[in-house]
Amino acid sequence: GAGVSQSPRYKVAKRGQDVALRCDPISGHVSLFWYQQALGQGPEFLTYFQNEAQLDKSGLPSDRFFAERPEGSVSTLKIQRTQQEDSAVYLCASRGLAGISTDTQYFGPGTRLTVL
Amino acid sequence: DQQVKQNSPSLSVQEGRISILNCDYTNSMFDYFLWYKKYPAEGPTFLISISSIKDKNEDGRFTVFLNKSAKHLSLHIVPSQPGDSAVYFCAASGSVGDYKLSFGAGTTVTVRA
Question: Which residues of B touch A98 (CB under 8 A)?
């Protein structure tokens, strides 16, 4: 497809379960970002990849959160031993090479995670 | 510590009138600013941006104004249309090409027919 896709769109997990969220960026985009959006808030940065290299993971809230992009395209955000405070929408965005005309991040529809 | 603030959580405007959305920031290193629009169950969609070398950028019905000394920017939508009803997020980064965006909490715009 032409845009960023994410799956699943909705995920309900019991507290303590592990979850994996998938992101398919726009084809050819080298940069990929994960954001967490809590209810009523704006997206907050989690982590950033350039190709397969994770260059910044400073926004990951705990060591239960892990992201990977092994082949420089699809990315997976994994959350281990989910807690109720992990409930949020997880947004993925991608971007082409940095430059004056291609600085925009394009977002996917998000995965809404609910931890019971 | 929220570095980008949208102090109005909601705005209601009549169709055909002007919508003005405001955004304030605290980090003086921010150099590039964007507005995103979000419909329910969709991801944010880029709307318009401005770099600090400008004080105004216009794209059709959308104009963004930047007052760097006041650390304030605004988005004007003229004329407002029903399809403009959405949540609008202000975002900022250190410079064009900087990867990390800081977002405000959003303003929900409702355009009344």
Answer: 96-97, 99
